[in-house]
Amino acid sequence: MKFELLSFEEELKRIDEINSLLSAGNISLDDAINLYEEASERIQHCKQLLNEAELKITELSSALESGDEV
After folding, report:
1. Inside any domain, residue 1
2. What is the pTM of this model?
């Protein structure tokens, strides 16, 4: 990834900014491609963060159900 990794909320904000820029349609093709690439990588990072959060919640739930310390 060639972009700075951000928190989930910051990633969503940046993806929204990119969407607005692309929707405006007043940027060059090269800029649009670069923004699309950035958005794709940020979306992948968001998916990774969500998967990690889901795993953590599953582990915590299992620990609670079995009576283990969290």
Report:
1. no
2. 0.84
Write out pLDDT tens, residues 3-62.
899 999 999 999 999 999 999 999 999 999 999 999 999 999 999 999 999 999 999 999
Task: Assess contact for 12 and 46: CB atoms under 8 A.
Answer: yes
Residue 3 within a domain: no
- How many structural domains is the chain composed of? 1
Per-residue HEC secondary structure of the chain comes to CCCCCCCHHHHHHHHHHHHHHHHHCCCCHHHHHHHHHHHHHHHHHHHHHHHHHHHHHHHHHHHHHHCCCC
Nearest to 22 by CA among 12, 10, 11, 36: 36
